[in-house]
Design goal:
4-stranded mixed sheet, globular, Glyas_Bleomycin-R_OHBP_Dase, alpha+beta, 4 helices, VOC family protein, two-stranded antiparallel ribbon
């Protein structure tokens, strides 16, 4: 069964798979504290376990190195390591950041307003992930009117 409503899309879902040494702690953090609903879970031979959590609408954000450096600077004040970072849109950026820190994440960038009008924080989270929690402070149509925003042109 498809979880996507756009029948014309070539890809129906983006799924990010992470290996968590402490599976139970990761589930408690992402499912119970961040409140990502569990779609399904499986158990297999040799204590194999997986839980698939619904993170709402998924997007793939592709940034060049200059953009990554800028985002790192805005969210944390310094360059962060390379690799994949997950970002979760929430309705209460400060509250969610506080809850996640209480559940074991380490805040590396306190909630702060960005130049593109969102409230972002950065955390080191279970399963070795660096995450951003963001709350949009402005609707997309308003943001699209700002200089520098729009769609990438095909070069």
């Amino acid at each position: 069964m498809s979880t996507h409503t756009n029948d014309s899309a070539g890809v129906l879902q983006l799924r990010v798979i992470v290996e968590a040494e402490d599976f139970d702690a990761a589930i408690a953090f992402y499912r119970d504290t961040l409140r990502l609903p569990e779609q399904v879970a499986f158990e297999g031979d040799g204590d194999a376990r997986v839980s698939i959590l619904d993170a709402g609408r998924a997007t793939l954000e592709i940034s060049n190195p200059a953009q990554k450096r800028m985002i790192d600077q805005v969210e944390t004040g310094e360059r962060q390591g390379s690799g994949i970072r997950l970002a979760f849109e929430v309705t209460d950026g400060r509250g969610v950041t506080t809850k996640l820190a209480a559940a074991g994440a380490t805040i590396i960038g306190e909630p702060r307003e960005t130049p593109w009008r969102s409230l972002n924080s950065r955390l080191d989270a279970p399963a070795g992930l660096q995450i951003t929690v963001f709350e949009e402070l402005e609707e997309v149509p308003e943001r699209a009117q700002r200089a520098g925003f729009g769609k990438a042109d095909s070069r």
